[in-house]
Amino acid sequence: MTTRIRRYVETDTGHRVPNHKSKCRHMHGHRYRFEAEIEGETVQESGVSEEGMLMDFSDVSSILMEHVHDVVDHAFVVYEGDTAALKACEIMGPEHRTVIVPFIPTAENLAKWAFEQVEPHITSAYGNALKLVAMHVRETPKSIASWIP
Predict the structure, then answer these.
(1) Is 85 helix (H, G, I), strand (E, B) or coil?
(2) Which helix (H) or strand (E) holds 109?
(3) What dotted CATH number matches 3-147?
(4) What separation in angstroms does the CA of 80 have from each of 68, 77, 100?
(5) Bridge partners, residue 136, by sequence
(6) Which of 20, 24, 28, 96 is the most buried if burial means most Cβ atoms within 10 Å?
(7) pLDDT of residue 127
């Protein structure tokens, strides 16, 4: 039997969906929640810090902070083909935090991107075969996208 855990980080991140039929085509931001869902067996090794856990929640947080939060928090994520948004960000100067990506930064695409950033770092020293099974991205309180390979 397997167990699943979830841990999340939140970011304040700007984006735009350049060809959107409505207001999302404008530059705006969200309070995103990036939530990693991990599956595996609990650590059975007696006396270790992670005994009874899949992975220490603080270790999951560290991975999410380094590979997602610290990359996009208080940044503007721009599709590399969005010349108008790129030009606007350029006007802000070199200190402006702009993250250029090869995809339109929808919640769905950001979920896949975050999964790819985090997945290589979900490991265990105890052989309990951990697996990142999903990345959930909450863009608004009512809007959540998931990437499940």
Answers:
(1) helix
(2) helix 107-118
(3) 3.30.479.10
(4) 19, 9, 6
(5) 35, 146
(6) 24
(7) 84
For 9, the 3-state DSSP assignment is strand
Model pLDDT, residue 17: 96
CA-wise closest residue to 36 among 94, 92, 119, 141: 119
**Tokens (6 digits) for 58:** 């603080």
| Global model pTM greater than 0.85 | yes
Token representation of residue 23? 């207001």
What does the DSSP assignment read for 12-79? Answer: EEEE--TT-SSGGGS-EEEEEEEEEEEEEPPB--TTSTTBT-SS-HHHHHHHHIIIIIHHHTTEEEEE
Q: For residue 1, what pLDDT is reported?
A: 62
- Domain ranges for the chain, please list them: 3-147
Quick check: helix, strand or coil at residue 99? strand
Question: What pLDDT digit, counting tens, does each position of 27-55 carry?
Answer: 999 999 999 999 999 999 999 999 999 99
Are 133 and 113 contacting, i.e. CB atoms less than 8 angstroms apart?
no
Q: How far apart are CA 30 and CA 66, in angstroms?
A: 20
Tell me the two tokens of residue 98: 């702009």
* Ranges in the chain, pLDDT < 70: 1
